[in-house]
Amino acid sequence: MTLNNIFSTFPTLTTERLTLRQPLETDVQQVLLLRSDATVNKYLDRKPTATREEAISFIRKINDNFKNNAGVYWAISKRGEEKLIGTICIFNFSGELKSCEIGYELLPGYHGQGIMNEALKKVIEFSFHTFGVETIEACTHKDNHGSAKLLQKFNFEKTTIIDAANPGLIVFRLSK
Hints:
By secondary structure, this protein is α+β, with helices and mostly antiparallel strands. It is built from 6 helices and 8 strands; from the N terminus they run H-E-E-H-H-H-E-E-E-H-E-H-E-E. The protein has an 8-stranded mixed β-sheet, with helices on both faces. Helix 2 packs across helix 4. The two termini are 18 Å apart.
């Protein structure tokens, strides 16, 4: 089974307060804010997005990744609103979709409101039930205690895996 066998259109997900939808080029300003924010980037090994062109290029890349069966990258917005406030994605699928990796980020003004908790719950359910994934991994920086706490709330277990290229990362794993 591949992503292509599951979706002909992008899977929009909804929760009580949120819509998880396909990122659009009209999200460029919010993507630029998110990917250039010092708080968001603090624990990420990436160069901050500096221009609208870089943000548009990123949006096109993640949408191409969906078309090419490489992952699903959702824009998080409050239900009934279009404004992107964060993102959540599943990617790095194993050959038979037995495992994947999850990642997420949220604008600091929305931290502490349970938004990522709600989005993460929905994407975990989606990954296990729609894809039949058996294991989900998440990597977070050893100093990103908020992310580690969120993952542990969902019963992700800290592993002993060490990433030689980035030894500051902790790998968490959740099995179905």
